[in-house]
Amino acid sequence: MLLLNYNAFLLGAIIFLAISLSNFIYVWLCKIWKVRILEFSIFLNPWFSLLKRNINGVVYKLGWIPMGAYIKPLGMTEEELKDIPAEELPFSFSGKPRTLKVLFRFAPILVLLFVLLISLFTLKGPGNLFQAISEMYNYMAFAIKVMFDAHLKSEFVTMTNNMLVDKNIVSFALVIMITVYLVINLFSTLYAYDEKKDNKLSKLVSFIVIIFAAYLTFWKIPVFVISFFSLRQNITYLVSFFLGLYLIGVLIFMLVMFLIKLTTTKS
């Protein structure tokens, strides 16, 4: 049984390229504001890392969960400042202007919005951007309705097939995935904002919203999507998607290691 699907593989690769781009933007911002970087990681690494190198005081890690990439600047939180030697305080993240913190917060969202825009362009062409947005909005609105009314499933399948005529299926999937992520990210941002308030009612409403968002993310949406495919198809798509994530992540980590060693040798 062939467990590879080109479109799912390409989707995973593009998603991780976007994630990695955010990481490199973080590095670039740290260089501009002279913030010391302690860790640079490709993939998440709870408990252990597949690869770990300490070069010029920066720990480079290759994790094993392909769900993200991150950097750890010196003094990321106010609590860490008390443990930082006085001579290193000028290079801490917390001591920098609020502008840097805002850019750190919104860098991944801006990258995803850029990828979303490119994906929408490829669906209908640059001259039909608003038509593409309108069609995708109507499609996703109907998808939400179908999630809670199984009787509309056949109509939804027909609508999907019509939507995919003469369209790039990878761009189509990217638009859906990024939109869902941005909406969930908005919920979590609002929840974090309300957590700082003393209003108990506001906190309760935010908590209910975030629980509902988690229910959609980890149960309702995945179950809804896999219900349209056979077990073999689901396995094929998942294996291909994660293979795309892993391959691009490993290649990026190897490229970073090569460039770091090259610049270290020259200096």
UniProtKB/TrEMBL annotation:
Alphabetically ordered keywords of this record: Membrane, Transmembrane, Transmembrane helix
InterPro entries: Peptidase_M50
Protein's membrane topology: Multi-pass membrane protein
UniProt key word Transmembrane: yes
Places the protein is found: Membrane
Transmembrane segments: 6-29, 102-121, 169-192, 204-229, 235-260
Protein known as: Peptidase M50 domain-containing protein
Species annotation: Niastella yeongjuensis
GO biological process: proteolysis
UniProt similarity note: Belongs to the peptidase M50B family.
Domain called Peptidase M50: residue spans: 27-172
Main location group: membrane
UniProt cofactor(s): Zn(2+)
One Gene Ontology term, aspect cellular component: membrane
Pfam family of the protein (one): Peptidase_M50
